[in-house]
Amino acid sequence: MLAQKTIEIIKSTAPVLEVKGTEITSLFYKRMFENHPELLNIFNHVNQKKGRQQTALANTVYAAAQNIDRLEALLPAVKQIAHKHRSLGIKPEQYPIVGEYLLKAIKEVLGDEATEEILEAWGAAYGVIAQVFIDVEEGMYQEAASQEAGWRDFKNFTVVKKEVESSLITSFYLQPEDGKMVPDFLPGQYITIRTAIPGEEYLFNRQYSLSSAPNKEYFRISVKREAEHSPEGKVSNYLHDSVSEGAVIEVSAPAGDFHLDVNDHSPVTLISGGVGITPMFSMLEALAKNTPSRPALFIHASRNEEVHAFKKNVAELMEVLDNGRAFFAYEKPVNAGTLCDHRGYIDTAVLDGLVDRDSIFYVCGPAPFMKAVISSLMSIGIPEDKICYEFFGPAMKFQLQEA
Q1: Any known ligand binding at 85?
Q2: What is the tens place of the pLDDT at every residue in 8-38?
Q3: Is 277 marked as binding a ligand?
Q4: Which residues does the annotation mark as catalytic?
Q5: Does 393 appear as a known binding residue?
Q6: Would the pLDDT of 393 be above 70?
Q7: What's the CA gap between 281 and 288, in Å, rounded?
Q8: Chain-centre distance of CA 196, in angstroms?
Q9: Could you tell me where the beta strands, DSSP code E, fall in 347-395?
Q10: Mean pLDDT computed over 338-352
């Protein structure tokens, strides 16, 4: 428990963190990596370069400061981050390193404003918050390891099949190198792929949604090829160009709190943009296999028909569902004769005439797409607590009211 004086100091410094949080976290990462470069084997370098991780951490620290006297309010966010940490193999012994350089960054940015009293308060608060993460993550590690065919950190998997799904997306079928079956997971969850790329100093970690329903034989990820020389393209191009059938890669146990509620039988609407179709297809396939009577609407937006993955597969699953419907939108079809349900963006008018108001909604895709879709859903009267969504990359909140 924190002393009341410590709580008062933390809450009084929260406004400063709101203003200077990203400056502090940017300096924190810079100093920490200078002194502990081995941690670059864990962190996503792209998110670092684009400032996403710094912003996400700043938001987390600010939220912790605001809620330091009621940490239970942070548990949903803690669990979401803990899923990421568990899938990356974050260890308890790394938390003191983070604490040390976070306090040093606070001191360096705030200067004389960061008195010894303030730094001591933040040191105590960080210790409490870190322990919450450590405890939650240990529970997740134990759960991952204790389930049938489970494991704790990373495990070698063999690429047993590569399959082209569209002009940009290729699927990789992964089976355990030891010949054992794969563990169960919830439709919508992801795995982390850890790989060494020739010529690169550090390991790369990328999280990919599982794109098939749970089965005992394999995991499947479906990877979009990013622009060749973009930071995002480093791993995706390596997988597309250099990882062939028979290759061995390291894989984490499935993780993530964005998933289909398999015990709910109310109508469900799955809305995706681009490669955001991957967790949605896992959900749709699971519905067809386990609860085909559940009403399901599958809405997908693609730039054009050439980049649209799983179109035929979705149509086949619709034949299995008792009350299923697919709706495809193309921004700019390549061919004039291409058939689709809508040309242009999925906007408020489209959703207003399409969705069941009693549905549970799942949304995944690029951030601008999700912001537009979620704002449109809310504007037609869908309660926010009926809308589930997931970002690619660090968890970051957007201001829906600006849409």
Answers
A1: yes
A2: 999 999 888 889 989 999 999 999 999 999 9
A3: yes
A4: 95, 137
A5: yes
A6: no
A7: 10
A8: 22
A9: 360-364, 387-390
A10: 95
